[in-house]
């Protein structure tokens, strides 16, 4: 397949320090000793050098996800494949690669306008223990979690990630329209070359932050519950209460981080040992139970 996992994400926020403090105090992340001279904060979840790059900007928005390839050969083959399909690929500078703690990376845009970065050769990190007595985040070979992005150009974006990047389909979820008169909602869940049920999700509506949500996985329901308490204490809006999804079986809740970007915090996500024996599913209900949504009204 080629794509191993989601190795890092880049966020732009108006106050990187405040966002980093939130990540430590609420999520249980750590702050890496990594300084790019631009005021960015680099956040750790595990023994990788960092997983989140939080950059200074004039507005809060999602910038890009970094997809890890297995080798220099796989990386070069993907560049060639994209260019052969007429996709404009930008190769990052050595300085920018160092900032991402990778050997080399390139970037391009998908048909819905999302910036995607891909790389090989992640630099070694050092041992890391999460805060708040979290034993460990579920990362490793499966990457930092999963990412769901807006994909209004839905079919073209599906083709981009499946045919060019080699993602496989895990589940095709159809839900009723978000508002009367709109089309049905569709979330296409895509897996990479690791056991996590999905690494990438494509939602067929836009989002003002450029993000639907990022998922953070821990190892127990108690760790999820303690985080819920920290979220409430911080005064952050929980827009979906505790529930279990029907496709990846994750038990989780959702809330808005500072700046309005959606985060899912959960445990017990399904893992697939052998994708060659897996049959993609089509579902019409997102949950076995729970996950009652409470989106704030405009202006709140």
Automatic annotation (TrEMBL):
- Report the cofactors: Fe(2+)
Q: Does the keyword Transmembrane apply?
A: no
Keyword annotations from UniProtKB, A to Z: Aromatic hydrocarbons catabolism, Dioxygenase, Iron, Metal-binding, Oxidoreductase
Q: What PROSITE patterns does the database record attribute to this sequence? A: EXTRADIOL_DIOXYGENAS (PS00082), VOC (PS51819)
A single GO molecular function term of this UniProt record: 1-deoxy-D-xylulose-5-phosphate reductoisomerase activity
Q: What EC numbers are recorded for this enzyme?
A: 1.1.1.267
VOC domain sequence ranges? 5-121, 143-268
Report the Pfam families cross-referenced here: BphC_D1, Glyoxalase
Q: Which InterPro entries match?
A: Glyas_Bleomycin-R_OHBP_Dase, Glyas_Fos-R_dOase_dom, GlyoxalaseI/FosfomycinResist, VOC_core, Xdiol_ring_cleave_dOase_1/2
Superkingdom is Bacteria
What family does the entry list? Belongs to the extradiol ring-cleavage dioxygenase family.
What is this protein's record name?
Answer: Short-chain dehydrogenase protein
The organism of origin for this protein: Candidatus Micropelagius thuwalensis
**What lineage is this protein's organism placed in?**
Bacteria, Pseudomonadati, Pseudomonadota, Alphaproteobacteria, PS1 clade
Report which gene this protein is encoded by: ditI
